[in-house]
Amino acid sequence: MSSALMPVRTHIVIPARLKSTRLPNKPLLTIHGKPMILWVAEKAQLADFADDMCIATDDESVAKVCAEAGFDVVMTRSDHASGTDRLAEVAAIKGWAAHDIVVNMQGDEPLIPPLLLEQVKTLLVQDAESVMATLCEPIEDYNTFIHPSVVKVVSQNTNNQQRAIYFSRAPIPCDRDVVLSDEDNTQAPKNAYRHLGLYAYRVSLLQQFVHWSQTPLEILESLEQLRVLENGGHIAIAKAACPLPAGVDTQEDLDRLNAMSLTAFQDD
Predict the structure, then answer these.
(1) Quick count: other Cβ atoms within 10 Å of Cβ 143?
(2) Which phi and psi angles does 211 have, rounded to 5°?
(3) Residue range 139-178, pLDDT digits in tens
(4) pTM of the predicted model as reported, rounded to 2 decimal places
(5) Which among 29, 17, 140, 162 is positioned nearest to 81, based on CA atoms?
(6) Where along the chain do its domains lie?
(7) Domain 10-137+153-166+194-256 has CATH 3.90.550.10
(8) pLDDT digits (tens, 9 = 90+) for 79-136
(9) In 60-99, at which residue ranges do the beta strands (DSSP E only) sit?
(10) Count helices and strands in the chain by DSSP H and E runs
(11) How many CB atoms lie within 10 A of CB 147?
């Protein structure tokens, strides 16, 4: 059977690294008594559009917890330069077809709506010329806009397809009139968008990605998606269909989630 006639399968992969500079042992830290990675995996199970789901980790303790809970675990190397490189290893281990789609679900977002996972997958399916898809949301306040930890994205409409032009930790786009004025800045520009770290990839891209050296802008910004743009790939992008609740980066984030009602994690 030719590849054009073969069905396209969708795989959800949850990368889970134990090492974190801001919050050590993050995947195994508990929310209402359950390791965070298991909350995330249970959310992934609600995404009924996917053919399968697995957790990718380089740590035996994470693998043990996930396997004992009944989840598929793939052990990966510990020396990957980025999460995308790790997904490429998973795709190779699993032997997924080049035309299949991989959805990267962050392991520190236990409240992510499954709707967003489906949206990013559908976005890639609908743009045959893009090798990757992601989501964004408007930035309303100026402090968020200028913060380096918030990744900004600018995009353009090409042939009725919205595609990313550039991602940056810098405040882009720049409103020239505001920058040159003496007034205090209180809000972000109208076209300011925050990039959400949710991706869908074609396996064929992952196969190429690992053979590309890290690019100058990728290294400068520490943003792996720039490697795709610098190598001429198109990244489809759309405004998220619903809000993405904040994930867990710090102990304060973890405390906030533990203070929430248990039903917030159990609802569809």
Answers:
(1) 12
(2) -95, -5
(3) 988 889 989 989 999 999 987 889 999 999 999 998 877 6
(4) 0.91
(5) 17
(6) 10-137+153-166+194-256
(7) yes
(8) 888 888 899 999 999 999 999 999 999 889 999 999 999 999 999 999 999 999 999 9
(9) 73-75
(10) 11, 11
(11) 15
